Amino acid sequence: MPAPTRTLFRSARARTLAICAAPVVALLAVAALAPLPFTIAQPGGTVNVLGADSGKQVISLKGVPGRTTDGQLRMTTIVVTGPQVDVRLRDVVSAWFRTDRAVMPRSAVYPAGSAKENEQHNAEEMKKSQTAAEQAALNYLHRSPDQVKVDLNLADVGGPSAGLLFTLGIIDKIDGDGRGGDLTGGKTIAGTGTIAPNGDVGEVGGVPLKTQAAKRDGASVFLLPRKECAAAKQDSPKGLRLVPVDKLNDAVDALKALAAGQDDKVPSCAA
After folding, report:
1. Which of 16, 80, 101, 224 is buried deepest, with most CB atoms within 10 A?
2. CA-to-CA distance for 3 and 6, rounded, in angstroms?
3. CA-to-CA distance for 96 and 82, rounded, in angstroms?
4. Which regions of 129-193 does DSSP assign to beta strands (E)?
5. Could you say which EC number(s) this protein's record lists (predicted)?
């Protein structure tokens, strides 16, 4: 008799577990199909601010002759899924295990509400960034805005994170390294960071993805806000030198040292 009793007990337990598991399985199935409040980000395009974008020079000058430059200064971007695109559990799981993808809260990426409102917000932030870049560059060069007029053109890019690269581009176009050479030293330099008129460099988002875009497009050096070193080092591509800066002067000095072959004078996120 003991054996049949154990068999009946196991069968009853199996039925109980099956009954209890059914709602869980159903919930998981619903969760897998339901849209989640996230966006998926990945490396976007880069633009050489010393060159042209969509047929127009990114930096145009009036009042001074613009220098012909070698090398590149590439501002970097990330691309995110739109606010109306459904992101599901499988997308989040897939992105979680990839270094070229990042899962971000939708509210953090689209804080302004609708897609149109967010687009307008990003355009306004880009305009402020361009104005601050012009002011920071002319302050650094001790030039008056009455003497030099700067026109910045960049299509289909929003937000303030190109400020540092805009500023460096203006300086290179007007003065180079101050000794007749290029600020880039002929290299392909990339980077990201906001800029204030006084030259302070501010934090931005998506730095690990931007380093991948930079390396993909030929950069050997990446300038970034110092506070974002830890994030950048996590998935930094091999062969890309991370140079942290707090102020515009830090970035200019680092580029001049690199151009002169004085690598020991260049800060590093590895230090």
Report:
1. 224
2. 5
3. 19
4. 149-152, 188-191
5. 3.4.21.-
Sequence-separated contacts (24+) of 137-144 with Cβ below 8 Å: 137/166, 137/167, 137/168, 137/170, 137/171, 137/174, 138/170, 139/197, 139/198, 139/199, 140/167, 140/171, 140/199, 140/248, 140/249, 140/252, 141/171, 141/174, 141/175, 143/64, 143/174
Residue type, 5: T
Give the model confidence (pLDDT) of 72-117 as tens digits: 999 999 988 877 778 878 878 877 788 888 887 877 777 766 667 7
Task: Report how far residue 92's alpha carbon sits from residue 104's, in angstroms, rounded to the nearest whole number.
Answer: 10
pLDDT digits (tens, 9 = 90+) for 133-155: 999 999 999 999 999 999 999 87
What distance in Å separates the CA atoms of residue 35 and residue 87, rounded to the nearest whole number? Answer: 5
Q: Are 55 and 155 in contact (CB under 8 A)?
A: no
Q: Which CATH architecture has domain 43-79+113-265?
A: 2-Layer Sandwich (3.30)
